[in-house]
Design a protein that fits this description.
With 296 residues, this protein is mainly alpha-helical. The chain contains 13 helices and no strands. It has helices spanning 8-12, 14-39, 42-66, 75-101, 104-111, 113-120, 126-142, 154-177, 184-205, 212-237, 242-249, 252-264, 270-295. Helix 4 packs antiparallel against helix 8 and helix 7 runs antiparallel to helix 13. It is globular and about 50 Å long.
C-alpha cells in the first residue's frame, strides 16, 4: 500500500498509469482499422497484393526513419534476422488470407493463440493448464465440426492457425534478434519480409497495385497497421509492466470483432462470441499469472 495523503501529487498519480493504457488502446484501434481497410482491397488486388503493399511500404518507411545501414548486423545475427523476417512476412500473408475468408475478429482470436502457446510452453503449473483448456475450448467452438459453426470457411481457419504458428516463431526469433540497437531488427526483418511478399503481390495483382486509390489505401494500411501500432506500443511498453501489456493486448479479438462489425458489417453468432471470450480469458489469465510469478 502506498501513502494515501491527498495532495496534488497523489491526485496526479492515476493519470500516468491510465495514459499508457489509452495509448495501447489507440494502438489496437489503429491496427484493426488498418486490417478492415486492407480487407476492402481484397476484391481488387487479393490478399497477396495487400500484403505486398503493406509490407513493402512499411519496409520503406522503417528504412527511411531508422536507417539501419548505419550499423550492419553481424554474422551471428543474420540467421535470426532471416527467420524473423520470413515469419513476419508469412504471418502477414496468412492472416490476410484468413481475413479474406472469415471475419476479422475470429481470425485474430485464432491468431493470438500463437503467442499464448509460447507463453504457456513448458509450464507445469496447474493453473496454466486452465488457460490452455480455455483456449482449446474456444478453438473447438470455432472449428467447423458442427452445423452451428459450419458458416466458417475451413481454409480461413487453417490460414489463421498458420498465422498463429508464424506469430509464435516471430516471438522466439524476434527476441533473439532484438539485441540489435534502435529498432534495427524490425527494419531489417521488414526488409526480409518485403523481399518475397512484394514480388508475390506483384505476380498476383500486377499493375493493379499502382492504381492511385489502391496505392493510397495500401499506404494507409501500412501506416495504420504497422507504423502507428509499433510506435504507440513502444511508448506504452516504457510505462507498463509486461503482464499488464499482455492483459491489455488480450482484448485484441474483441477490438477486431468490433471494428469488423462497424466498418465491414461482420456479425458474429453468440457461439462465435463465446469462442472469442474463451480465448481472451485464456490470454488474460496467462498474462496475470505471468505477472504474479514475476513478483514472487
Amino acid at each position: 500500500m502506498t501513502n494515501a495523503s491527498f495532495d496534488s501529487t497523489t491526485l496526479a498519480r492515476p493519470e500516468p498509469a491510465l495514459l499508457p493504457l489509452l495509448v495501447l488502446l489507440a494502438s489496437l484501434l489503429s491496427q484493426y482499422v488498418g486490417a478492415a481497410s486492407a480487407k476492402s482491397l481484397f476484391p481488387l488486388v487479393g490478399a497477396e497484393g495487400v500484403t505486398g503493399l503493406r509490407v513493402g511500404l512499411s519496409a520503406l518507411m522503417l528504412l527511411a526513419i531508422l536507417r539501419p545501414w548505419r550499423s550492419l548486423p553481424g554474422r551471428a545475427d543474420l540467421g535470426n534476422l532471416l527467420v524473423y523476417g520470413a515469419t513476419l512476412g508469412a504471418m502477414n500473408l496468412s492472416i490476410y488470407r484468413a481475413m479474406e475468408l472469415i471475419p476479422i475478429g475470429i481470425a485474430i482470436a485464432i491468431e493470438v493463440t500463437g503467442p499464448l502457446a509460447v507463453a504457456l510452453l513448458g509450464s507445469r503449473r496447474l493453473k496454466d493448464f486452465l488457460w490452455i483448456a480455455c483456449a482449446v475450448a474456444g478453438l473447438a467452438l470455432l472449428l467447423p465440426l458442427r452445423e452451428a459453426s459450419g458458416t466458417l470457411n475451413p481454409a480461413g481457419i487453417a490460414y489463421a492457425a498458420a498465422a498463429a504458428f508464424c506469430w509464435a516463431l516471430y516471438i522466439v526469433f524476434g527476441k533473439r534478434a532484438s539485441a540489435l540497437p534502435g529498432g534495427q531488427a524490425v527494419a531489417w526483418g521488414m526488409l526480409v519480409a518485403a523481399s518475397f511478399t512484394v514480388p508475390l503481390g506483384i505476380a498476383h495483382a500486377g499493375g493493379g497495385l499502382l492504381v492511385p486509390a489502391v496505392l493510397l489505401t495500401g499506404l494507409a494500411v501500412a501506416v495504420l497497421s504497422s507504423m502507428v501500432p509499433y510506435l504507440l506500443e513502444m511508448m506504452a511498453l516504457r510505462r507498463l509492466p509486461s503482464h499488464v501489456f499482455g492483459l491489455a493486448v488480450s482484448a485484441s479479438p474483441a477490438v477486431a470483432a468490433l471494428i469488423g462489425f462497424l466498418m465491414l458489417g461482420e456479425r458474429l453468432s453468440a457461439l462465435q462470441w463465446a469462442a472469442i471470450a474463451c480465448i481472451m480469458f485464456a490470454s488474460a489469465g496467462s498474462a496475470l499469472a505471468k505477472g504474479r510469478r514475476g513478483r514472487t
